[in-house]
Structure to design on (199 residues):
């Protein structure tokens, strides 16, 4: 990376809303990039069924996702600047928890939670970009997962149609593809668009 690029990443603050299949993998990618600071949020604990697509280990079942994410990410980069919140995000809490973020990654499972987070960031956090996901269930069809710029401050990843259901589960390959699309979109925003804000 060039010194200019390193500066952008080193001084960036990224929020991750949800640490399941998407969020736990987005966090890994951004930690490996040495993003300046990550703010991680989730209220849930790790279940055995999570292990097929989430960045946790069998001996962490029953532990809080936030705590185990912090532990796992610090094994990747002991010097990472990480902040964890065991909290259920609401329209009131989102601007408080993510107030310093340049980008927020929406990594929820439920459509109503996704909508709530996107609408809150766009309406109450006037400078932040949100990278959301819609349509990642199933298997195969890798190239149907795309990154689209919906507006100046909203980026959408996914095929926009694939939801879970009978015979259409969440699988590590498709979820992983979407998560790394998110991480790549976040990186692009930080490097290409936030230079003046990070100076």
């Amino acid at each position: 990376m060039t010194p200019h690029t390193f500066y952008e990443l080193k001084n960036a603050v990224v929020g991750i809303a949800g640490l399941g299949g998407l969020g736990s993998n987005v966090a890994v990618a951004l930690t490996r990039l040495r993003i300046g600071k990550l703010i991680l949020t989730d209220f849930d604990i790790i279940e055995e069924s999570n292990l097929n697509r989430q960045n946790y280990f069998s001996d962490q079942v029953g532990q809080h996702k936030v705590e185990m994410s912090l532990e796992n990410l610090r094994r990747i980069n002991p010097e990472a600047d990480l902040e964890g919140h065991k909290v259920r995000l609401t329209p009131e809490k989102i601007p408080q928890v993510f107030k310093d973020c340049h980008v927020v990654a929406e990594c929820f499972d439920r459509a109503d939670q996704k909508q709530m987070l996107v609408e809150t960031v766009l309406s109450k956090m006037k400078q932040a970009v949100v990278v959301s996901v819609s349509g990642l269930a199933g298997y195969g069809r890798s190239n149907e997962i795309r990154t689209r710029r919906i507006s100046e401050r909203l980026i959408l990843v996914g095929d926009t149609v694939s939801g879970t259901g009978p015979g259409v589960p969440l699988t590590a390959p498709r979820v992983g593809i979407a998560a790394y699309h998110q991480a790549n979109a976040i990186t692009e925003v930080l490097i290409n668009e936030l230079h003046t804000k990070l100076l």
About this structure: The chain has one domain: 3-198. The beta strands are 13-17, 37-42, 82-86, 103-106, 129-133, 146-151, 154-158. The helical segments are 3-10, 23-32, 65-76, 94-97, 111-124, 172-193, 195-198. The two ends are 18 Å apart (CA to CA).
